[in-house]
Design goal:
binds NADPH dihydro-nicotinamide-adenine-dinucleotide phosphate; arginine biosynthesis; EC 1.2.1.38; 342 residues; binds N-acetyl-L-glutamyl 5-phosphate; cytoplasm; NAD(P)-bd_dom_sf; single chain; alpha/beta; oxidoreductase; Rossmann fold; Dihydrodipicolinate Reductase, domain 2
Length: 342
């Protein structure tokens, strides 16, 4: 019997990418599609690339519209998911693509999001140590942020293997879709085209505590992260350049061996052959993660680069992967590592 899935926030970027994936998922039947300001609009007017759903009309996001499904995906702005989720009952699988349930520490949430903490749900990054076990059979999933996905997958193997000191430096470039669909002055075409610019500099970005949470869990001690996000003139993609001081005795061979071990059986993460580097173009529209490692002996640092599509593995693909695990389906169902090029 098909898994009936509702999507709240179907007019947004994350909701649109999710629907693109669900349309080819063999086990899923697409149910209610809801929006907010665009309720009453045809989906074809908002997501013209989703041709099979063009004549579906968005409903308002209400408990009534979302009732009667096996899975409800919430692709809503931060702070909007908790009130919707609590009206859905305990039997339905709820997958929150926003931030509301990602952080364990209420003080971190309040410091970075400025509202009361709604709680913590099982975290939807199966590749992390214990990640799959946390999701199996779960009725609630918190999908990670896009930057924390790229950065955690780049650095956790070094921490889990005890190779890196507990301080990491990350500079990551993101495509503009990471900022969502609603108009923003710094995202006008003429501001973004032909330019790269930093933002959230100096520890202020709300994804920093999420990275610290993931890397500290892998290391077994508190890891600090100096994170600088940058905006790149492209619609999709994240390229994360991450480094950490190597512990004494670490060699290029021991670093590579740790990453080969961590990713040998992962269906979506590819440790590239030596000499080849991750690129956002190579993962465009796919759920793949490209990773490469280097040991900078002069600086005494482990350097790891990762590339993801922020909307696929960084949001909607990660959500589908977690849904598959939670429902006991093959984890890769409906997901692809095949990109689009050129
Ligand atoms: N874009 C990305 O790369 C990533 C996004 N996410 C997360 O996914 C979520 C959605 O992001 P994204 O799609 O980019 O954002 P968009 O701004 O593109 O879309 C937001 C969606 O939420 C709906 N919405 C807005 N306000 C409300 C409200 N008060 N109540 C109910 N629905 C509302 C909008 O409906 P309408 O258009 O009808 O007003 C729209 O469907 C966010 O929490 C974001 O953090 C996570 C990882 C990456
Ligand atoms: C380019 C850009 O603006 N990116 C967003 C990250 C989007 C995302 O994945 O984060 P959430 O799921 O936590 O919203 C930002 O830096 O705020």
């Amino acid at each position: 019997m098909a898994v009936r899935a509702a999507v709240a926030g179907a007019s947004g970027y994350a909701g649109g990418e999710l629907l693109r994936l669900l349309l080819t998922h063999p086990e899923v039947e697409i149910g209610a599609l809801t929006g907010n300001s665009n309720a009453g609009q045809r989906l074809g007017a908002l997501q013209p690339h989703l041709l099979p759903l063009a004549d579906r009309v968005l409903e308002p996001t209400t408990p009534e519209a979302l009732a009667g499904h096996d899975v409800v995906f919430l692709a809503l702005p931060h702070g909007q998911s908790a009130a919707v989720a609590e009206q859905l009952g305990d039997e339905v699988l709820v997958i929150d693509m926003g931030a509301d349930f990602r952080l364990k520490d209420a003080a971190d949430w309040e410091a970075f999001y400025g509202s009361p903490h709604a709680g913590t749900w099982p975290y939807g990054l199966p590749e992390l140590p214990g990640g799959r076990a946390a999701l199996e059979g779960s009725k609630r999933v918190a999908v990670p942020g896009c930057y924390p996905t790229a950065v955690s997958l780049a650095l956790f193997p070094a921490y889990a293997a005890g190779l890196a000191e507990a301080e990491a430096v990350v500079v990551a470039a993101s495509g503009t879709s990471g900022a969502g669909k609603s108009p923003k002055p710094h995202l006008l075409g003429s501001e973004v085209m032909g330019s790269m610019s930093p933002y959230g500099v100096g520890g202020g970005h709300r994804h920093t505590p999420e990275m610290i949470q993931n890397l500290s869990a892998a290391a077994g001690e508190r890891v600090t992260v100096s994170f600088t996000p940058t905006l790149a003139p492209m619609p999709r993609g994240i390229l994360a350049t991450c480094s950490a001081k190597a512990k004494p005795g670490v060699t290029a061979e021991s670093v590579r061996a740790a990453y080969e071990k961590a990713y040998a059986d992962e269906p979506f993460v590819r440790l590239l052959p030596e000499g080849q580097w991750p690129a956002t173009a190579s993962v465009y529209g796919s759920n793949a993660v490209q990773v490469q490692v280097a040991h900078d002996t002069a600086a005494g640092r482990i350097v790891v680069i990762s590339a993801i599509d922020n909307l696929t593995k960084g949001t909607a693909g990660g959500a589908v992967q977690s849904m598959n695990i939670a429902l006991g389906l093959d984890e890769t169902t409906g997901l692809s590592t095949i990109g689009v090029a050129p």
